Each structure stands twice: as C-alpha cells, then as structure tokens.
Amino acid sequence: MAKKKSDDVLKDNANGVIKNHMIWSMGAGFIPVPIADFFAVSAIQLDMIRQLSKIYEINFKETEGKAIITSLTGASLARLGASAVKFIPGVGTVLGTLSLAVLSGASTYALGEVFKKHFETGGTFLDFDPSRLKNYYNEKFEKGKELARELKKQHDEGKTDFVSTASAESATESTMSPSLVDKLKELVQMKADGVINEEEFEALKKKLIKE
Prior knowledge:
The chain is mainly alpha-helical. It has helices at residues 2-28, 34-55, 62-82, 91-120, 130-156, 162-168, 180-192, 198-210. The protein has one domain (2-210). The radius of gyration is 17 Å and the shape is globular.
C-alpha cells in the first residue's frame, strides 16, 4: 500500500508540473514575435523535463533533453513558424495568436505526458526512444489541444490568468521563474521602441532563457 501511495504522490506532482508548464507555454504563445515564441516555449518545455526528472529521481541530461524535444515536437512546433500569419493586418493577427497559444500548450502537455509515462515505467534518458513514443505523443497532442482550448476559453472569460494560475498551483519548486514570458515581452517591446538593436536583443534573449 505504501508504494501505491508513493506512486500516486509522484503522479500528482508530475501532473501539477505538466499543467503549470502547459499554462506557461500558452502565455508564451502571446509574444508577438515568432522566434521569441519558439525560444520561450522550448525553454519552458526543457524546464518541465528537468522538474519531472527531479520528481522521478532521474539524472537530468540537458543535451539529450533538447534533442528529444526536437525529435518529438518537430512537427507540432514547426507550426509555430506558420503562426507568422498573425502579422497579417486585421483578423489574421488575432487568429494566428490564438492558434499559437493552443498549439504551444498542446505540445507541452503531450511532451510532459510522454516523459511521465517513460519515467513511471523505469525509463531514463539513456533508453528513451522517440520513435517508439511518437504515436503516444501524437495521441496526447490531440487531447492537449482540447485542454488548451478549454483553458483559452476560461482565460477569455476572465476565469484564468495563465501565469498567476500556474504559480498558485505549483506542485513542486520551480527552477524557472514564471515571469519568463513577461521578461521576453519586455525585450520585444524594447526592440520595437528602438531601445535595443537586433544584436542586443538576441544576446539578452539568450541570456534570459539560460537563466
């Protein structure tokens, strides 16, 4: 019974981490620059894997983690590039941003579910086979879109604040500040206002994501 209870606690903590990072990813989806979107979501997803590794006492490997993210989310995150439609004046701007938030959240949710399943069965980074888990990722990505749409609806109705909700419901100590999205938004605005140039923007963005 003790082991069952322990497993339940691990699963609850993992589910909390996945939900928090899914919400943060959706917040990142509102940054009005595609490259910032991609880097923000990738940083959030890597942090999620780091926290899941800690929960299941798995030795975290950043290089392998990044490679797995790219392998599993390649198709779904590639759609973030397609979100450039949001720069089209008028309706396209709104629709592109909304779609991006849902895709970002769904991708993060699916990735988290894949790692949770792998770690629950005793897997590590050394025996992680992206090709074997791709179908499971795709399945969870579809479910993630439904969950993300519901969260987006709650947000639109003023019932959910992406960043503050994730902070309030945090099940484990986060190594990533939930203000990452806000800081990236500030950098984008500073660049738009001419306070910093392209080179300075890139340097500050990379420094921020590595923190």
